[in-house]
Amino acid sequence: MTYALNLADIALKSGEVPVGAVIVDAEGKLIAQAANRKEKTKNPTAHAEMLAITQASQSLDTWRLEDCTLYVTLEPCPMCTGAIIQARLGLLVYGVDDPKTGAVRSVLNLPDSNCSNHRLRVLAGIKESACREQLQSWFAQLRL
């Protein structure tokens, strides 16, 4: 999660919402890393999770990521949660809940819903304070 926080800091410094994501394989080897790039690319799907899933799939030459773990600083939105489910990720680890668009536990619970064809294991609240502080700092800067 520390590495995901560092990526989120890179996003923050480039004017993006500070979210970072990394994916590791079953042996713990880093196979994908990304920070939000929505503003830079003018692409609404350029969330850190989406970019990392694409990288991991290309790295492993498969869309099935069941032996992989995704670490992300913020609870995924509905789009990203859908992609996580479709990729059959083995484990999702995230830092802080998103009370506005969180689709894993906060607002929606897509992984445990009837529309999910995959049971996703989830660990939430990892480095929660650091993830929260980073996001709050970014939003405070927006309000200045």
Describe the structure.
The model has no long low-confidence stretch (mean pLDDT 95). Strand 3 (69-74), helix 4 (78-86) and strand 4 form a beta-alpha-beta unit. The chain has a five-stranded mixed β-sheet with strand order 2-1-3-4-5. Helix 1 (2-13) packs parallel to helix 5 (128-143). The chain has 144 residues and is an alpha/beta fold. The protein has helices at residues 2-13, 38-41, 48-60, 78-86, 128-143, and strands at 20-24, 30-35, 69-74, 91-96, 121-124.
Jot down its keywords:
144 residues; alpha/beta; 5 strands; 19% strand
Give the arrangement of secondary structure elements.
Layout: H1 2-13, E1 20-24, E2 30-35, H2 38-41, H3 48-60, E3 69-74, H4 78-86, E4 91-96, E5 121-124, H5 128-143
Parallel strand pairs: 3-4, 4-5
Antiparallel strand pairs: 1-2, 1-3
Helix pairs in contact: 1-5
Q: How large a portion of the residues is in β-strands, by DSSP E?
A: 15-25%
Anisotropy-based shape: globular
Helix count, per DSSP? 5
Question: Fraction of residues in helices?
Answer: 25-40%
Which structural category do the helix and sheet elements fall into? alpha/beta
The averaged pLDDT comes out at 95
Order of helices and strands: HEEHHEHEEH
